[in-house]
Design a protein that fits this description.
The chain is mainly α. It contains 17 helices and 3 strands. Strands 1-2-3 form a 3-stranded antiparallel sheet. The two termini are 33 Å apart.
């Protein structure tokens, strides 16, 4: 008997209300985030099963080889206005990749996989190059020897941070990769239903994700905390905001009846990151973050959603990372490709075959 769902279930992702758990191809996402890499999660979403060692090695090698941008793309990025939103740059890059691809309309499995890997590999390079040019810095080429999350930090900042920072970011990538029929995935599916190409579907999805009620929520959390400033002000600020009927970003969810099942593992990774950092600013932000969470629970009984811990995770990972939070996670939205493949009749994908999550 199908379980009740507040949003339509798909073969890719479902929120199981009985266990309050988001699943990817039948796997609880919190277990995937705890024990699997982002590349493994992406493979699962695309192919319907987790990769074995050989499949994962080949997948990573193909992705790493596709990361560099050609000169034409680099020149296009350099001509984009610095005043435009980072998501505009990402959207333009995807359209350009499609215009250059002679197989743009070929929906057979082999060309589709190449297109999918191309977007997965190149979009973080686009995001990193764009945020560096906004700071007057030259782009840093991707490093094929680094993992997906590590390479993103390398291209953005020229260095790979401590393991707990990278792991915290990778957990967020896994948790954000898919969520049933969210706005951007639904948008991608609408475009796909017209038998349009993958690039068009992803371009449209980026447009949906750009909206502050969807992809911009974790960044809005940090703007909210910056407005409060002092942890001692959190409760009074919340009282005033609720009285004024302001939207409190990072709390509640339309699907989860009690609390967002993705939050505990994200919060645990964030707590580990905070525990290993002793600077006063981190201490202040952590106290403020906890104070507002507690005040919201006491006043409204509403728990945080994933955007609440993820917003602080981005800020603590690097002060410069806030500007690329939405676009960075957007560049790794494996769900859009999975949805396109699921809705195009000429593209096949495997049935989900459960494998143990331990030992990775």
């Amino acid at each position: 008997m199908p379980c009740a769902n507040a949003s339509p279930p798909t073969e890719i992702s479902t929120v199981v209300q009985e266990t309050n758990s988001l699943t990817y191809r039948g796997y609880p996402v919190q277990e995937l985030a705890a024990g699997r890499s982002f590349e493994e999660g992406t493979y699962l979403l695309w192919h319907g099963e987790l990769p074995d060692t050989g499949q994962l090695h080949a997948f990573r090698a193909r992705e790493a080889a596709l990361r560099p941008l050609d000169r034409t793309t680099a020149e296009l990025l350099a001509r984009m206005p610095e005043s435009c939103h980072p998501m505009d740059v990402l959207r333009t890059a995807v359209s350009f990749f499609g215009a250059e691809d002679p197989t743009e309309d070929d929906g057979r499995p082999a060309p589709t996989l190449v297109k999918s890997l191309t977007l997965l590999a190149k979009l973080p390079t686009v995001v990193a190059a764009d945020q560096r040019r906004r700071r007057g810095l030259a782009p840093i080429p991707p490093d094929p020897d680094l993992g997906y999350a590590e390479n993103f930090f390398h291209m953005c900042f020229g260095t790979v941070p401590a393991l707990e920072v990278v792991r915290c970011f990778e957990i967020s990538l896994v948790l954000y990769a898919e969520h049933s029929f969210n706005a951007s995935t639904f948008t991608a599916r609408v475009v796909t239903s017209t038998l349009s190409d993958l690039y068009s579907a992803v371009t449209a999805a980026i447009g949906a994700l750009k909206g502050p009620l969807h992809g911009g929520a974790n960044e809005a959390v940090m703007h909210m905390l910056d407005e409060i400033g002092d942890p001692a002000r959190a409760a009074d600020w919340l009282d005033d905001a609720l009285a004024a009927k302001r939207k409190i970003m990072g709390f509640g969810h339309r699907v989860y009846k009690h609390s967002d099942s993705r939050v505990p593992i994200m919060q645990a990774a964030l707590d580990d990151l905070i525990a290993r950092t002793s600077d006063p600013e981190t201490t202040r932000l952590a106290a403020l973050h906890a104070a507002l969470r507690q005040a919201m629970l006491e006043r409204k009984g509403i728990h945080p959603n994933l955007d609440y811990p993820a917003g602080l995770e981005v800020r603590l990972g690097s002060a410069a990372a806030t500007s690329v939070s939405s676009s960075g996670r957007c560049s790794s939205r494996a769900s859009w490709v999975a949805s396109w493949k699921a809705r195009r009749p000429s593209v096949s994908h495997g049935e989900s075959r459960r494998m143990p999550l331990s030992g990775s």
